[in-house]
Specification:
The protein is of the alpha/beta class. It contains twelve helices and twelve strands. The strands form three sheets. Strands 2-1-3-4-5 form a five-stranded parallel β-sheet, sandwiched between helices. Strands 7-9-10-12-11 form a five-stranded mixed β-sheet. It has a two-stranded antiparallel sheet with strand order 6-8.
Length: 426
């Protein structure tokens, strides 16, 4: 029958945090615990109360663990109490001093809490240790027969084994320090790169914002000049028309750059959005009359997502503009918008019958200033729209990809996670 009385462990430790932590661990494991801050105080406690086991740190003020162990083992009244010395054991002198102290057991610091508890239980009750327990090798050692070995040889073997263990431990510490240093440098470089990117984006936003004003002035003057065009020479009218076209292209580029900058930082307000109705309005607004008369538009009903409305508008506008810009010359435009649930995502995609692009270049498609759909098309844009779409999809923790072959049209897929409605998401 197992004695229900709790084993009393005297913890001798000068560090308040370390002692409190050790005492809490032992208390949770079912031990009774007392405490002394140094060896001298521990000897005073032993006069009035004998513990079942002494667990002492090695290095302490007033009286350290080595001297405490020696005093306990030299006293006939206390020498039967198991003495466990907690020590770093990082050099041979420390090991020899530990052996000379008379301590019964040694636990190397730092020690995992579970291992410490198992070790103390084994010391106090070796009969309760099963063959599968952590410390079973101490209670059930392998059968090695009788060893007729001189003590000095055993001691030499112990020192040799210990020195090898110390060497391995030092190598591990050096590697750990090297890894920590590498991680620190990586974090520094990552922070520097992030700061540089933010600075670059801020510069781009400021630059494009500053460019808008002179462009608006230029556009205003061109509008004023239109009233005089009918009286102007042919060469002048052609020059003004070319200037107007280039001014419009510049305005589109500046607006696209601003949208790309906003995509990385603007607050997202998540709400329930009817994409079917939204994309129908966008197509109606963006599709030129010359293409609308013969275009075939098919949109699945009830495409519902939870996302930011402005971001969805920007994404769909760019995808529709992309389909219009890269339509096959002389072929009526066909646009199909479909949707399906895929796991915990809503996937929707836009298919067109345009010029397509080489699928091997798909990874570059969503990078800024890339134009891959060049087959049969002479009106390439700035290559920013799809990069903006990718940023906005990433902000929604979604996915975007494209499927295409030259001359066979393209389909752009977006998968957004199904999420509950929340007031805002940064």
């Amino acid at each position: 029958m197992i004695d229900a009385r709790k084993d009393l462990v005297l913890v001798v430790e000068d560090c308040p945090v370390q002692s409190r932590q050790t005492m809490d661990v032992l208390d949770a494991a079912g031990f009774s615990v007392s405490h002394a801050p140094n060896g001298a105080q521990a000897l005073k406690l032993l006069q009035s109360s004998e513990p079942d086991l002494i667990l002492s740190d090695a290095v302490m003020p007033v009286m350290d663990g080595f001297d405490l162990a020696r005093a306990v083992k030299q006293n006939k009244r206390w020498q039967h109490i198991p003495f466990v010395l907690l020590t770093i054991l990082d050099d041979t002198d420390d090991l020899i001093r530990s052996l000379k102290s008379g301590a019964d057991h040694f636990v190397r610091k730092p020690c995992a809490h579970a291992d410490l508890v198992a070790r103390l239980r084994h010391i106090l009750h070796p009969e309760r240790v099963g063959p599968n327990d952590t410390e079973s090798w101490m209670t059930h050692p392998p059968d090695i027969g009788k060893l007729d070995v001189p003590p000095q040889r055993l001691f030499n073997l112990l020192i040799s084994t210990y020195q090898q263990a110390v060497h391995i431990n030092q190598e591990l510490k050096a590697r750990e320090a090297s890894v920590r240093d590498l991680n620190r440098r990586l974090m520094q470089r990552s922070a520097m790169l992030e700061a540089a990117n933010l600075e670059l984006e801020g510069f781009a936003h400021s630059l494009t914002h500053d460019l808008k004003q002179p462009l608006e002035v230029m556009s205003g003057h061109l509008t004023q000049l239109e009233k005089y065009w009918q009286h102007a020479p042919v060469e002048a009218r052609q020059a003004l028309e070319a200037l107007g076209i280039q001014s419009e292209r510049m305005e589109v580029l500046v607006n696209n750059l601003l949208e790309l900058s906003r995509a990385a930082h603007a607050r997202l307000n998540i709400e329930r959005i009817d994409l079917s109705g939204m994309i129908r309005q966008i197509i109606s607004r963006l599709l030129p009359d010359s293409m609308a008369a013969h275009a075939m538009i098919r949109i699945d009903p009830d495409i519902i997502v939870t996302a930011d409305q402005r971001a969805c508008t920007v994404m769909l506008e760019n995808l529709v503009r992309n389909a219009i810009q890269f339509a096959s010359p002389g072929t009526p435009l066909e646009l199909d918008v479909h949707c399906r649930m895929s796991g915990n995502e809503v996937e929707f995609w836009i298919e067109d019958n345009g010029v397509g692009f080489d699928a091997r270049m798909a990874d570059r498609l969503f990078e800024p200033f890339q134009n891959l759909r060049t087959h049969g098309n002479t009106h390439l844009g700035p290559g920013i729209g799809l990069a903006t779409v990718k940023r906005l999809v990433d902000r929604h923790e979604g996915r975007i990809w494209a499927v295409s072959h030259p001359g066979e049209g393209s389909s752009f897929h977006i998968a957004l996670p199904v999420r509950p409605l929340t007031p805002s998401m940064r």
